[in-house]
Amino acid sequence: MTTTAVPKAPTKSNFPRILGLSLLALAVIGGLAGWASYWFLIGQHHVTTDDAYVNGDVVEITSEVPGTVVALHVDNTQKVAAGDALLALDPADARIAVAAAEADLALAIRQVRSLGAQAEQLRAQIASNQTTLERAQSDYKRRQTLVDAGGVSMEELSHARDNIQQLSATVDAARAAYKATESQIAGTTIATHPTVRAAAARLRSAELALRRSAITAPIAGVIAKRSVEIGQHIDPGTPLMSIIPLEDLWIEANFKEVQITNIRPGQPVAVHVDVYGSSQLYHGRVAGVAAGSGGTFALLPPQNATGNWIKIVQRVPVRILLDPAEVKAHPLRLGLSSVIDVDISRTDDLPATPIRNFALPIITSAGDDPRVNALIDRIIAENSAENGDGIGVATP
After folding, report:
1. Where in the sequence is the domain holding 84, given as residue range(s)?
2. For position 395, what pLDDT does the model report?
3. Does residue 237 share a domain with residue 166?
4. Which residues make Cβ contacts (< 8 Å) with residue 272, sequence separation at least 6?
């Protein structure tokens, strides 16, 4: 009987599996080591967020006087410079008001002049009445010496005494009238008299309303949100359009409350805006951290003391200034999304950083118009006395 040998199955080697597990373990260890190295060397010194948007001033244009729009000089997306004409209101009513105010000022000046003339007339009347009174008193004394001699009757002497009393009362009445008139003009000139100054103020108000019928740009920027149309009647305070100064923009980054612990003004920031992607890096600095979370200043802030409470991580706005030269080279628009990386490795001895790159301009008041003062001076000169504008009178 022949015995046939059965071949043994080949034994599989465990080396590939051991090798794979070893490589996986090395990869995990390497990843953890790399992550730990990044965290301790870089990551713990940076905070990032993609909840960040370009922000800037929105200068709302309104009218200070009512009127009908007769000219519209700009439209949305148009660039304007400070002082450029935006729109014009119908100036007809304002011009009529200016003409009426000019007439009122001239009338006020002539009324004040008449008070001066009236005071002079009363002073002359007092002097005349005083002379008549003194003459009557002298006649009365002479008649008294003739009574005993029978040259003057007692009745005539009584009439003379009554005449003195009447003349004395007339003098007192004239002096009272003089004092009343003199009190209205004492210590003033035509230009400084309250009546004239009040009329001049009304003229300034009318001229101011006429000047405000032409609306100009207070700052340079781009027109947005134009809502006014030709022929529309507008009231004071009605929003007409907005001007966006695109040269002065910043980033408003909303960091989680656990991220702002070490954020300080002056820390450097790396900014990437989605419109340019990773190809353009903006350099900025932290300008300031808001005084409260966004929810606190919302129109309807949360009332956590009522109902069932659920904790929600709050976000705090952080203002980041950009390099003006980089913004000029690569313009931005309001509302663009961005990614922010703040270097928080330094919290002390940081460079001072202003709250904004450019201070808002101070515009000149529409009431500071030297032409109005010149107009008032001309009207006063034309309606004043030829011998000067003084209206003071002497005490009688």
Report:
1. 59-92+211-244
2. 43
3. no
4. 278, 280, 281, 282, 338, 339
